[in-house]
Amino acid sequence: MLTGASALSAQPGIPRTSPPAPSSEIFLVPLTGQGATLSAGAPRNVTNRPGYDNQPAFSRDGRSLFYTSTREDAQADIYRVDLAAGTTSRVTRTAPESEYSAFPTPDGRALTVIRVERDSTQRLWQVPLDGSPDRVLFPGTKPVGYFAQPDDSTWVLFVLGSPVTLQVGYHGTGRTEIVGRAIGRSLHRIPGTTRASIVQKGATPWQVTEFDPVTRRFTALVALPPGAEDVAWSDGNTLLVGSGSTLWRWTRGGTGWTPIADYAGAGLRNITRLAISPDATLLALVADPAP
């Protein structure tokens, strides 16, 4: 089942009175070590409320966390939690439009988001944090579900359709082109490179691949655990994924995934979206708390 922006796109023209997205929580986990010594600590719930809280992304300074939240008005907007103070503030208020998958721009002055517009069109937008006018980046590319930036001027986009396509666009051009198909939602810049990781779903098991937007070459990295599709990089060689209640680590040159934490005892299940702070000392993960 798709959640968030992709769920809305699965039914064009979906009415605003549709049932709310399923409940989920965001947890913070401390990380220590690096590479093959990377380990994860105890989770702390930073949302802790009924309803949908999902798609976390750290601010550029690592002091706060942006995420998508659906509140009493059934509106999906972007919120920010100050990690030191524990206070939460609302960043967007755009009813009847909704925002998903917020990610800070390289200068930290704006958020790039997926906006579900008044007529259910779903495109990539930038929302300045100083209140300046919002702008759409690729007007003709829709419906966009997810995105990443391999470098500051290049975008890779997950565009819904049959099949889903991977599209590449460049800053200022307003256009994208198809370079792949049958991909997953987890797109990420690989730290220290100008490449992106893509989850390829064309065959089983699903594969994490490395994509070079200059050469358009895909390089297979590792097969994912069954049912898992959301990954995050702690550095250019170390990948994390959640499966059930377990967090797993993979490092380049290794033979497979190594379990580094099991959160069943903490009441977590169905770990999905992951985000890692810029200094790689914190992991944000989305999970369903046990009843």
The CATH architecture category equals 6 Propeller
- What would the principal axes of the Cα set say about the shape? globular
How large a portion of the residues is in β-strands, by DSSP E? over 45%
The total strand number stands at 26
Q: What's the CATH H-level homologous superfamily?
A: TolB, C-terminal domain
Question: Main beta sheet, described?
Answer: 6 strands, antiparallel
Rounded Rg: 18 Å
The end-to-end distance, rounded to whole angstroms, is 21 Å
Number of helices: 1
Name of the top-level CATH class:
Mainly Beta
pLDDT under 50 segments (min length 5)?
1-20
The total number of structural domains is 1
Question: What can you tell me about this protein's structure?
Answer:
With 291 residues, this protein is mainly beta. It has one domain (5-13, 24-289): 6 Propeller (Neuraminidase), CATH 2.120.10.30. Helices cover 2% and strands 48% of the residues. The protein contains one helix and 26 strands. Strands 1, 2, 3, 24, 25 and 26 form a six-stranded antiparallel sheet that branches. A hairpin with a 5-residue loop joins β9 and β10 (122-128). The protein is globular and about 45 Å long. The two termini are 21 Å apart. Mean pLDDT is 91; it is low at 1-20.
